[in-house]
Design brief:
It is built from 17 helices and nine strands. It is α/β, with parallel strands linked by helices.
């Protein structure tokens, strides 16, 4: 079976349950051990950004003491990503299939669907889908929808657990991992919406079918949100290992030459436009450029945009989006954001770039979550890729392109995690 897989039947309106069954067929009843074996052999990794093997998560929850609970993480704090929102808005039953089949395999009586507070259209789609399901109630309570305050770090798994448990959408230190003690101190399996859509398809077609696409070490397909200087921005389904060029072609081509590409969103990395021409959309190829797909975000930065202004604005927003509870975020991100403003406006001293590179390294691995790691990676890669532009701004200040319409979205600062 070729592409699309996950996006088969996707449209502007939510697909109802009957249409869903016609497109994808009914879910087969699985022996829990057999289903877990299929998922293990598929090699499916999480599509939320971390790329963690689903089988490892399942095994940890299965071995933990207590009654498990399954959480659908459909919070998309990454401003350049809309894939999970699109999935629940267009194909909610595919995501629900994945959540329900895992709940039954783990003998988990409860399912929670975590969405952003700002996603009321998504909430309406999920509520309607739940009302159409005839298979809820067989040893399972009605799935609960939880609206999590909108923010970049509030969608981190420990922040969601903390919010449900204590009303505070702030990441917490681990251990214990949520697979051991999460919601209500129960073993918690949290998986992103796209990952669960793949689970639903593997449950229907098996691991061998799943592995027909992609290289041996990274099988399957993935959803990416492509934006920036392309003619048809949107959500696309790619085969792992396919070329960046084929994705750009599917989007109607570039609107103008790309100075660089951002892979992985605001916690990701920049790659020059010239280097990106040779890239394939696989972990191995992207890692050669110190990049990854992350949560499935690719942005083409046009030559007409000012990369220094774009990076400075995003770094400032990311600093404001922190939970303000750890030194690396409070001090490190704030210092980087302020220094980038100075450089952008021509006030950066001789030591500004050395300071930025040092801080970008120092914040890594020191927070309660990976937020400072991502900002450090984003800034460090920008300093490499846009070295000439940063040097020009440090010498001469703002350029004509600084006032152009931004390519990278920076929503207003939100106080949900303060």
């Amino acid at each position: 079976m070729s592409l699309p897989r996950v996006l088969l039947g996707a449209g502007e309106q939510p697909m109802d349950y009957q249409a869903h069954r016609q497109v994808h067929g009914d879910l087969r009843q699985h022996d829990p051990a057999a289903l877990l074996a299929e998922l293990t052999q598929s090699g499916l990794r999480g599509r939320g950004g971390g790329g963690f093997p689903l089988a490892t998560k399942l095994d940890a929850v299965r071995r933990a003491k207590g009654t498990p609970i399954v959480v659908v993480n459909a919070t998309e704090g990454e401003p350049m990503s809309v894939k999970d929102r699109m999935l629940l808005g267009s194909l909610p039953h595919l995501v629900l299939d994945g959540a329900l089949v895992l709940a039954r395999a783990l003998r988990a009586p409860d399912v929670v669907i975590a969405i952003e507070e700002s996603g009321r259209d998504v909430e309406a789609s999920v509520e309607r889908a739940l009302s159409e399901r005839p298979d809820i109630g067989r040893g399972m309570t009605q799935p609960q929808i939880v609206a999590v305050p909108t923010g970049f770090v509030t969608g981190q798994e420990t922040a969601i657990v903390n919010f449900i448990n204590n009303g505070i959408p702030r990441p917490t230190n681990q251990p214990p991992r949520i697979s051991q003690r999460g919601i209500a101190r129960r073993p918690t399996l949290m998986s992103n919406a796209e990952t669960l859509a793949h689970v639903a398809l593997i449950a229907r077609h098996g691991h061998a079918w799943f592995r027909r696409l992609g290289p041996t070490e990274e099988a399957g397909s993935a959803l990416v949100t492509l934006s920036g200087g392309v003619r048809a921005p949107g959500v696309y389904e790619i085969e792992y290992g396919s070329s960046l060029g084929s994705l750009i072609e599917a989007a109607g081509g570039l609107t103008e030459s790309a100075r660089a590409f951002l892979f992985g969103g605001y916690g990701g990395s920049w790659v020059t436009g010239a280097a990106a021409k040779t890239l394939r959309l696989s972990t191995k190829s992207l890692w050669s450029m110190r990049a990854s797909l992350g949560a499935g975000v690719i942005v083409a930065l046009p030559n007409s945009a000012c990369p220094v202004a774009e990076v400075t604005r995003v770094a400032g927003w990311m600093s404001e989006e922190s939970a303000s509870q750890c030194g690396p975020c409070v001090n490190g991100l704030g210092a980087m954001a302020a220094t980038l403003v100075d450089v952008c406006e021509g006030r950066g001293g001789r030591d500004a770039f050395a300071d930025l590179r040092r801080w970008a390294e120092l914040v890594v691995g020191r927070g309660a979550c990976a937020h400072p790691d991502g900002v450090g990676r984003f800034v460090a890669s920008a300093l490499r890729v846009f070295a000439a532009e940063f040097d020009d701004h440090a010498r001469h200040g703002l350029c004509d392109a600084c006032e152009r319409r931004p390519v990278l979205i920076t929503p207003r600062p939100r106080s949900a995690v303060r």
